[in-house]
Structures are given as structure tokens and as C-alpha cells.
Amino acid sequence: MLMPSIFGENLFDDFMDGFPFGGYRNTSSFNNLMKTDIRDTDQGYELDIDMPGFAKEDIRAELKDGYLTVKAQSSQDRDEKDENGRYIRRERYSGSCQRSFFVGREVTQEDIKARFENGILKLSVPKREVLPKAEENRYIAIEG
Q: Fewest Cβ atoms nearer than 10 Å: which of 16, 32, 112, 132?
């Protein structure tokens, strides 16, 4: 059944979430972007982030206040015409997504290594030991 476009493609997603065992989920949209596998190794953490359809130039990684944020933005046009110049098919995609991970305030930008191959962004984040701050004695002044 065709639904008016004001309802979008995910009309029943919120309704079906109330069912046991997770209910219904539409897996054909952006829900499949940026799925991440995280491995804990002796040296640090290895992140593999699925980035299908994105080129290396479309992806940015930023470290700010202990959060590693990966952003991707893409815009594609695919047009086909027949002999008379009429469109047989027009498809456009434009979108962006982002995901953040807390890696600790001790990690610096130079510590993180990244490479992109076969639609997967691979990040290596070292473990940094959090050093406890030296405890300060705080005395209360006594008047009298």
C-alpha cells in the first residue's frame, strides 16, 4: 500500500518498537551506516567503521575534549538519457552522518592512526593511563 509522503518511509517504526524482542526495524535506510566493531587489544582499541558509498575525501575525523567524532558527507548524481534526451532514470543521493566515541582526554590527535580501505574506516586509538591528580589539602580557616 502506498502511503502519502508526509508520513515518510518509517511510519510504523515507532509503533512497532513497543512489541517484544525489539519489534520491527527498517534496515534499508541510514540505520546501516557507520556500524562499528571495537576490539580491545593490549596496546589500545581498534575501530572498524562501515562507510559504504563514501570516498576517503568525504570522511573527516576530529578529536575534541576527549571525543573522537567521525563525520561523512556525500552527494552523488546519476543521470541517464535516451536518444531524445529524455530521462529514463534520475537518482540523487545527498546525506551525511556522524558518530562520536569517548577516547579520553589524555589521547592526542597524533596518537590516533586512521586508514580507509574497501569502504571501512580503520582507527587505532592507544590506551592512555589516567594519572590520579595529587590530592590537595584544603584547610578551613579558624577565626578567633
A: 132
Tell me the longest C-alpha to C-alpha distance in the chain.
Answer: 100
Q: Would you give the distance in Å from CA 6 to the centre of its chain?
A: 27
Read off the DSSP letter of residue 102.
E
Phi, psi of 102 (to 5 degrees): -85, 120
Residues 94, 92: Cα–Cα separation, whole Å: 7
Contacts of 41 (CB under 8 A, 6+ apart): none
Angle subtended at Cα 141 by Cα 135 and Cα 144, rounded to the nearest 5 degrees: 160
Residues contacting 45, CB < 8 A, separation 6+: 38, 39, 103, 124, 125, 127
Residue 7: strand, helix, or coil? helix
